[in-house]
């Protein structure tokens, strides 16, 4: 198979993912607009999320200065290719599908001596990095075993994390396109709903009727799923969550005794 676009393995939220440099895809698709304008518009238009669909890395240039590279997942690359609706986009999408098929296909040929030697060298080079990643992953898993309970809301989960401003958690999830406010009247309280992107993957929702002496109102309890809890905890360790001004900088947590 001809190597149309280079594919690299990158770490996205603790997972080793096959990625494409968006600049290479931009060039292959022969996009007329500037790269920065194109990628930012596409991310906004199709609700791609950093650290889930792509990561950004700053590269220092030989000529001086720097630039930001976007390393995107193959799923994101396929979608960007498809929306171009031209022959180059179709060709790129088929290429990524074939790359995924080959990645998943069992290898029947034994590696050569040269390939084995190269694998050993790469394994030694990556050993320290992998040990660190495994240590972080083990810490995260152990923490989630203590923190996550079925039926929790994101606010209840974050209440256990030292320093998190729980009054801003749902607004943070809205900014990341996980939630949206279904209440159009800005004078009324939020009615949070789960975006289709995150529904049944990171979050789900449970409808209920809020009543008082004068009215009834359809509301929804936002329920955190295990993958969503893992994502939130990862954001916490990266200080991406909204934090209190008086936070002491320590990443500690305390098990929440009950779920309301």
Concise structural overview:
This protein has 260 residues and is of the alpha+beta class. It contains eight helices and eight strands; from the N terminus they run ββααββαααααββββα. Strand 3 (54-60) and strand 4 form a beta hairpin.
How do the strands and helices of this protein lay out in sequence?
Layout: E1 7-12, E2 15-21, H1 22-28, H2 35-45, E3 54-60, E4 66-73, H3 74-83, H4 87-104, H5 113-147, H6 154-158, H7 169-175, E5 179-181, E6 192-194, E7 203-211, E8 216-224, H8 226-237
Antiparallel strand pairs: 1-2, 2-4, 3-4, 5-6, 7-8
Describe, in plain words, how this protein is organized in 3D.
This protein has 260 residues and is of the alpha+beta class. The strands form 3 sheets. Strands 1-2-4-3 form a 4-stranded antiparallel beta sheet. Strands 5-6 form a two-stranded antiparallel ribbon. A two-stranded antiparallel sheet has the order 7-8. The protein is globular, with a radius of gyration of 22 Å. The model has no long low-confidence stretch (mean pLDDT 84). Helix 3 packs antiparallel against helix 4. The protein is 40% helix and 20% strand.
How much helix is in the residues?
40-55%
Q: Counting H and I runs of at least 4 residues, what is the number of helices?
A: 8
Categorize the overall geometry.
Answer: globular
Mean pLDDT: 84
Strand order across the largest sheet:
1-2-4-3
Radius of gyration: 22 Å
* Beta-strand segment tally: 8
Largest sheet: 4 strands, antiparallel
How many angstroms does the end-to-end distance come to? 55 Å
The percentage of residues in β strands lies in 15-25%
What is the H/E string?
EEHHEEHHHHHEEEEH
Secondary structural class: alpha+beta
Poorly predicted runs of 5 or more residues: none
């Amino acid at each position: 198979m001809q190597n149309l676009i280079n594919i690299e393995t990158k770490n996205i939220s603790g997972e080793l993912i096959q990625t494409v440099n968006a600049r290479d895809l931009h060039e292959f698709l022969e996009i007329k607009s500037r790269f920065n304008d194109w990628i930012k518009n596409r991310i906004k238009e199709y609700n791609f999320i950093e650290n889930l669909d792509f990561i950004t890395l700053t590269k220092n240039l030989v000529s001086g200065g720097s630039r930001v590279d976007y390393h995107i997942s193959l799923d994101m690359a396929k979608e960007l290719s498809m929306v171009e609706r031209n022959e180059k986009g179709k060709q790129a999408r088929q290429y990524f599908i074939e790359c995924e098929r080959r990645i998943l296909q069992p290898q029947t040929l034994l590696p050569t001596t040269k390939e084995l030697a190269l694998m050993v060298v790469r394994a030694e080079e990556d050993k320290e990095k992998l040990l660190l990643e495994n240590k972080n992953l083990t810490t995260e898993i152990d923490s989630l075993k203590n923190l996550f309970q079925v039926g929790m809301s994101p606010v209840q989960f974050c209440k256990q994390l030292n320093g998190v401003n729980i009054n801003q958690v749902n607004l943070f999830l809205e900014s990341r396109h996980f939630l949206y406010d279904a209440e159009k009247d800005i004078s009324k309280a939020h009615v949070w709903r789960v975006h289709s992107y995150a529904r049944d993957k990171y979050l789900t929702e449970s409808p209920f009727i809020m009543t008082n002496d004068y009215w009834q109102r359809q509301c929804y309890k936002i329920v955190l799923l295990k993958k969503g809890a893992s994502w939130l905890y990862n954001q916490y360790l990266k200080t991406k969550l909204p934090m209190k001004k008086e936070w002491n900088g320590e990443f500690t947590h305390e098990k929440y005794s009950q779920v309301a």
